[in-house]
Specification:
The structure holds 2 protein chains of 2 kinds. Chain A is 67% helix and 0% strand. By secondary structure, chain A is mostly helical. By secondary structure, chain B is of the alpha+beta class. In chain B, the strands form 3 sheets. Chain B has a 7-stranded antiparallel β-sheet. A 3-stranded antiparallel β-sheet of chain B has the order 2-1-12. In chain B, strand 7 and strand 8 form a beta hairpin. In chain B, helix 3 packs across helix 4 (34-58). The longest helix of chain B has 25 residues, at 34-58. The relative contact order of chain B is 0.13. Residues 82-141 and 243-269 of chain B have low confidence and may be disordered. Classes of the chains: A mainly alpha, B alpha+beta. Chains A and B meet through helix 1, helix 2, helix 3, helix 4 and helix 5 of A and helix 4, helix 5, helix 6, strand 5 and strand 6 of B.
Chain lengths: 184, 320
């Protein structure tokens, strides 16, 4: 089976192929962070781009940037998938410490990351999503508001709740992690 | 500023989301309030850990090598299952021009620093040239620039500088084409030439062959292109649209304020080409799978195919 099929527009296919390769890793990684699972992210990648393909004719550049539209599809799909499935927390074997300087640093950093991921997994979908959009995709509050179709003030309050909840979880989970905070 | 108010602004401060006046006011409060300063440091550490963890876990991941072939199979099933929708699945040129506009202007969904790293798909149309010299000057060695000559002029298109990929372009084109579009990313080059008035079209897709991609040639008439096995599939019907919508006001409004070269107006609007006698020529060359769709004669298609040569790479340092 080739890219083209009878009755199918080759220009569409060529363009969509380029689009897929442009954004596949970004979507895959974002889905991984939202779903906590590489396997789930692999399935999500397929479903998200299938939705993108079907919805492309309705994409209106005058209503927002393409990436905002793509992130919206990604977030909405991952949310619906999480609602349908019980997803795992991050397994320890996902640790990838090989690029670190020494074994003890590797172990400590991987442990800290696992603690952060486990704490994130305890958050609601809404809170975890704003963390990924802000601290992985590096979107501004305005951009996050556009992706999630919520007011900017809601983005701010969700981030506030998410970060402060995480801080509490991290303090409780691992006293070794220095949060440089005096007792309140 | 009271502590209660200050604490609602600590995370926006760390995220760079406060106005200069708010930031100054909060910074002043932090210099005099030990408790708020300690909370600020704790939140800063938390955010650093979150950011570092997300990047550390996600960045090593690559989409599976089989992802495209699996998606292609799914798309094929969907298309065959819903034939009445086939002709509505057009990715309009405007979508790519929108991406381009965002990249060039540091658009609303991408920070400027990231935009260049992600630069991949650019489209140019001859006669409606995108203004790129200032952009070339900004990005320096981050990108590799290639020049494409079209029927009515030439244009320059870029891929990330780390990409070991040189797109091929036809050095021979039959007379009659009036417009050209080029899309590039690290794995795919797509060149389109058309003339809506005469309903003439030539589309060349070049895809890097990966381990997992389905590289087998389709069924059809066996031929040779520069001595390499090729297959020609005939009797294809297509309806191909090139539609340009107006630029996004939002993208223009959200630029960073830095002086930039304006984009030349793009005027490719509503061009539609119905092809009733389309042919698809497929072959492999230089580690690429090349698919050429056209309503040219078989002989002309072979002539164009055999004329493919690496696009000229622009190596000189662009003048600012």
């Amino acid at each position: 089976m080739g890219i083209h099929h009878a009755g199918q527009d080759p220009y569409t296919q060529a363009s969509f192929t380029a689009l897929f390769h442009q954004y596949k890793n970004l979507v895959f990684r974002t889905a991984f962070l939202l779903l906590n699972s590489e396997q789930e992210a692999e399935d999500a990648l397929q479903e998200i781009f299938l939705r993108v393909y079907k919805a492309l004719p309705s994409f209106d550049p005058t209503k927002g940037a393409f990436t905002t539209w793509l992130y919206r599809i990604t977030v909405n799909y991952c949310r619906s998938r999480r609602r349908r499935h019980v997803l795992p927390t991050f397994p320890l074997e996902n640790a990838r410490p090989s690029d670190l300087a020494n074994v003890s640093e590797c172990v400590e950093r991987a442990e800290n990351e696992d603690i952060v991921l486990r704490a994130m997994a305890q958050l609601s979908d809404d809170l975890r999503t704003v963390l990924v959009l802000r601290y992985y995709l590096d979107l501004s509050y305005r951009e996050i508001a556009d992706v999630l179709n919520i007011p900017e003030g809601t983005v701010k309050s969700r981030l506030d709740r998410a970060v402060k909840t995480l801080r509490g979880e991290l303090k409780a989970s691992c006293p070794r992690i220095s949060l440089q905070e005096a007792d309140q | 500023m009271k502590c209660a108010e200050a604490r609602t602004k600590l995370i926006p401060l760390l995220d760079g989301e406060l106005t200069p006046a708010e930031e100054a006011q909060l910074q002043h409060h932090l210099t005099i309030c030990v408790s708020c300063r300690q909370q600020y440091l704790a939140l800063q550490t938390t955010i650093q850990m979150v950011r570092s963890t997300l990047h550390s876990r996600a960045e090593p991941l690559e989409a599976p090598a089989t992802a495209w072939s699996h998606l292609e199979a799914r798309l094929s099933q969907e298309i065959h299952a819903a034939p009445s929708e086939q002709d509505t699945h057009h990715l309009h040129l405007s979508s790519f021009l929108e991406i381009l506009t965002n990249l060039l202007k540091g658009g609303s969904a991408m920070r400027r620093g990231k935009a260049w790293a992600a630069l991949a798909v650019l489209m140019i149309t001859i006669g409606v040239m995108i203004s790129v010299p200032a952009v070339r000057a900004q990005v320096g060695g981050l990108l590799r620039w290639f020049r494409f000559e079209g029927p009515a002029g030439g244009g320059e298109v870029a891929v990330p500088g780390s990409v070991e990929f040189t797109p091929l372009r036809p050095t021979y084109l039959p007379a009659g084409f009036q417009a050209m579009a080029v899309g590039l990313n690290p794995e795919v080059a797509s060149l389109s030439y058309w003339n809506a008035a005469t309903q003439q079209i030539l589309i060349i897709d070049e895809t890097r062959m990966g381990r997992s991609q389905q590289n087998a040639l389709p069924s059809g008439k066996r031929m040779k292109v520069n001595g390499q096995p090729a297959v020609l599939v005939t009797g294809l019907q297509r309806n191909i649209s090139f539609v340009q919508l107006p630029p996004t006001p939002e993208a223009a409004a959200q630029t960073s304020g830095e002086p930039e070269e304006p984009l030349a107006p793009v005027t490719v609007t509503g061009e539609n080409i119905a092809v009733f006698d389309g042919k698809l020529l497929v072959w492999h060359a230089d580690g690429m799978r090349i698919e050429m769709f056209s309503n040219l004669s078989e002989e002309e298609m072979i002539k164009v195919a055999e004329s493919l040569a690496p696009a000229e790479e622009i190596l000189d340092t662009p003048a600012p």
